[in-house]
């Protein structure tokens, strides 16, 4: 019987997701509806003046449209400005009218409610023009779009016309999460793992294995304990991996151990980056078709595409069955560009439609065989809900996977995690890994209720179980930070349990090759205190971005001067990272520094999650009489920032303002006053040096 608590959980998550999706779509629509194609292109959201270069067939009979810059716009040598369009983005292609680069002011849009937001911003002439949606694949100076449906008439109408492309909100992830929640809500019974997660059963207390032969000889004791724990008979294992403790390294060992025991493993994560990172390491140990990556080929790292289901189905022995059919389809598509007759184009597309139907039937069998023969399947969480995996599960006649592993679970929405858990209920074991003291899942909604629901992760759910602490293993030895950098986050976030390995505990910036030994390069932690009236923050009302961002100009000059000092004393630009909580400060710092030192990396906290640098300079921005600190009040964001450096952390900020922001910030400032090198800059010297 369905438990009412499960119904309430599913409904609570569904309502919060609906709110989040509405905010996501609304924010995107605000931008798209208010901007002309030219303005969207200037913001990096659109690409103009494109024409179709070629057409070919991709996985599932999809059409791959290769786009190139219209030769009439500056010739064949002009570089294509792709803006912020990236591989994996959902995009829309539309006809570009001659007036599409301008938009009349004061003219109210007359588009119907059914018209997609991506149409807005286009000129009146192309409001009703045909459009295609697909996934972008960016490679160097070219872009292609993979479309799923048969859109013969639309493609035919494009012909040699000039096109434009715009980024959209991707609803596929929301749809798959909602589908998983629907199954959770309506299930008549639950698997053992599902019952444990829902609090209806207790996890088995593990009998830890003692005779494990480790495949990697470099594992430390906490990592070995975590591996043995994951291989035990407990249905659920939680691996807590603080910064620099080798969480991914440990997961690789677990996967290899399971494969050596003949098990089949599904490895998931919240993003393509998270799972491609694992795949990159796994492919050195698991060869050939035994390791398969599920996902749209356009979204995969270039180096991992040989493991992609699409590529394997084309190049392996299985692929011979469908290769000839694919070639026949491509030959027909190639004829289209050679004919001007609309009637002939329609006839060719009609033939292609018949061939594609046969192609999909044959391909389904090929894909099922490849997936069922693989030992490890790697996928994003929403990719785990793909038709390819579902079809293989139905065709296999047995459980498709023995174990599900979810990495970066603390950055994953709980609803995402339910996708593989509900789709593969016969799985015997669930291993989740992450750190709930680092960045939570990205939530756009400002609603406190929605954020509270969506920021609670599966990590939190397992930890809160009756036996939560008994199924959790902490990786406690870190290999990144000087122990002085590590000390405060260890004390505050990890109950003082982190230990710096002897190889990193005392390393300093001045020990790097060619770096001079001066006071600044000998200090592992510095705080450059900007208290007073000389470093005031400012706000930037950016109407294009529909938000308010903060910046601190004099603080930016101070950061710039410190970077110059490091460079003058031998630190390389590639060794330096700068983190700021606000995009306006990132933009200002980039303008100041990148003109001369482009290799210095500058980003918000989110851009540095999972990353490390020899030096991290943290520009806090906030300096005001009210003690308002904004984003800085989010403890987990600051934990990420302060745990990125290996040899030096430099904090630039107003200790008076910061210490008034929260109990956490007060304790951080107090600790820093006792344990870091303090500097008090003179504004005159700062501006003169700049």
TrEMBL record:
A Gene Ontology cellular-component term: cytoplasm
UniProt cross-references to InterPro entries, sorted A to Z: AAA+_ATPase, Coronavir_polyprotein_1ab, DNA2/NAM7-like_C, DNA2/NAM7_AAA_11, Helicase_ATP-bd, P-loop_NTPase, SF1_C_Upf1, SMUBP-2/Hcs1-like
Lineage top rank: taxon: Eukaryota
EC number assigned by the record: 3.6.4.12
Residue ranges annotated for the AAA+ ATPase domain, each copy included: 233-469
Localization per record: Cytoplasm; Nucleus
Residue ranges, annotated region (Disordered): 101-132
Reactions this protein catalyses: ATP + H2O = ADP + phosphate + H(+)
Nucleotide-binding is among the record's keywords: yes
Basic residues bias locations: 102-114
Keywords: ATP-binding, Cytoplasm, Helicase, Hydrolase, Nucleotide-binding, Nucleus
Principal place of residence: cytoplasm
Domain Helicase ATP-binding, residue spans: 215-459
Record-level Gene Ontology MF annotations: 5'-3' DNA helicase activity; ATP binding; DNA binding; hydrolase activity; RNA binding
Entries under NCBIfam families matching the protein: IGHMBP2 family helicase
Family from the record: Belongs to the DNA2/NAM7 helicase family.
PANTHER family: DNA-BINDING PROTEIN SMUBP-2, DNA2/NAM7 HELICASE FAMILY MEMBER
Protein name: DNA helicase
């Amino acid at each position: 019987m369905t438990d009412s608590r499960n119904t309430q959980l599913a409904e609570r998550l569904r309502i919060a997701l609906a709110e989040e999706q509405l905010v996501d779509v609304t924010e995107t629509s605000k931008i798209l509806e208010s901007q002309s194609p030219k303005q969207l292109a200037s913001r990096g959201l659109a690409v103009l003046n494109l024409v179709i270069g070629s057409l070919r067939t991709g996985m599932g009979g999809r059409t791959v449209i290769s786009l190139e810059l219209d030769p009439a716009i500056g010739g064949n040598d002009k570089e294509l400005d792709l803006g912020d369009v990236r591989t994996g983005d959902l995009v829309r292609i539309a006809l570009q009218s001659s007036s599409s680069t301008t938009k009349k002011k004061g003219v109210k849009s007359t588009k119907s409610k059914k018209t997609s937001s991506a149409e807005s911003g286009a000129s009146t002439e192309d409001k009703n023009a045909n459009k295609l949606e697909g996934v972008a694949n960016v490679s160097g100076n070219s872009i292609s779009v993979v479309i799923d449906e048969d859109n013969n008439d639309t493609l035919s109408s494009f012909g040699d016309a000039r096109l434009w492309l715009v980024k959209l909100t991707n609803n596929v992830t929301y749809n798959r999460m909602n589908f998983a929640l629907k199954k959770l809500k309506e299930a008549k019974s639950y698997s053992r793992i599902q019952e444990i997660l829902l609090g209806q059963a207790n996890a088995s207390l593990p009998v830890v294995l003692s005779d494990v032969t480790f495949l990697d000889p470099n594992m430390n004791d906490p990592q070995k304990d975590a591996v043995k724990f994951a291989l035990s008979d407990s249905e659920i294992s939680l691996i807590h991996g603080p910064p620099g403790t080798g969480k991914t390294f440990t997961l690789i060992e677990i996967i290899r151990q399971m494969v050596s025991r003949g098990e089949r493993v599904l490895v998931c994560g919240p993003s393509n980056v998270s799972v491609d990172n694992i795949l990159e390491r796994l492919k050195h140990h698991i060869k050939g078709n035994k390791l398969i990556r599920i996902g749209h080929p356009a979204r995969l790292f270039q180096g991992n595409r040989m493991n992609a289901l699409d590529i394997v189905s084309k190049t392996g022995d299985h692929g011979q069955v469908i290769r000839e059919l694919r070639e026949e389809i491509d030959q027909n598509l190639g004829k289209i560009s050679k004919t001007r007759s609309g009637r002939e184009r329609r006839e060719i597309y009609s033939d292609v439609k018949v061939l594609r139907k046969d192609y999909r039937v044959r391909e389904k069998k090929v894909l099922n065989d490849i997936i069922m023969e693989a030992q490890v399947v790697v996928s994003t969480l929403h990719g785990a809900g793909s038709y390819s995996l579902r079809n293989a599960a139905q065709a296999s006649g047995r459980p498709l996977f023995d174990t599900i592993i979810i990495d970066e679970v603390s950055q994953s929405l709980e609803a995402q995690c339910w996708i593989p858990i509900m789709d593969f209920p016969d799985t015997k074991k669930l291993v989740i890994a992450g750190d709930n003291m680092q960045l939570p899942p990205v939530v756009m909604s400002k609603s406190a209720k929605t954020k509270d629901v969506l920021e609670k992760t599966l990590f939190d759910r397992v930890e809160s179980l009756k036996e939560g602490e008994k199924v959790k293993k902490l990786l406690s030895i870190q290999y990144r930070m000087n122990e002085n950098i590590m000390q405060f986050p260890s004390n505050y976030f990890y109950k003082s349990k982190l230990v710096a390995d002897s190889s990193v505990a005392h390393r300093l910036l001045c020990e790097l090759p060619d770096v001079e030994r001066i006071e600044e390069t000998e200090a592992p932690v510095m705080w450059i205190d900007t208290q007073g009236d000389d470093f005031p923050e400012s706000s930037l009302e950016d109407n294009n971005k529909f938000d308010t961002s903060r910046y601190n100009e004099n603080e930016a000059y101070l950061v710039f001067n410190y970077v110059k000092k490091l460079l003058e004393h031998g630190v390389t630009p590639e060794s330096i990272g700068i983190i700021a909580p606000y995009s306006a400060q990132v933009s200002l710092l980039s303008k100041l520094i990148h003109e001369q030192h482009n290799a210095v990396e500058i980003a918000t906290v989110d851009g540095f999650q999972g990353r490390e640098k020899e030096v991290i300079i943290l520009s806090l921005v906030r300096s005001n009489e009210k003690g308002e600190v904004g984003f800085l009040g989010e403890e987990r964001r600051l934990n990420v920032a302060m745990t990125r450096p290996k040899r030096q952390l430099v904090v630039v900020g107003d200790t008076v303002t910061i210490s008034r922001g929260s109990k956490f910030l007060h304790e951080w400032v107090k600790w820093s006053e006792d344990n870091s090198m303090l500097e008090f800059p003179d504004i005159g010297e700062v501006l003169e040096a700049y």
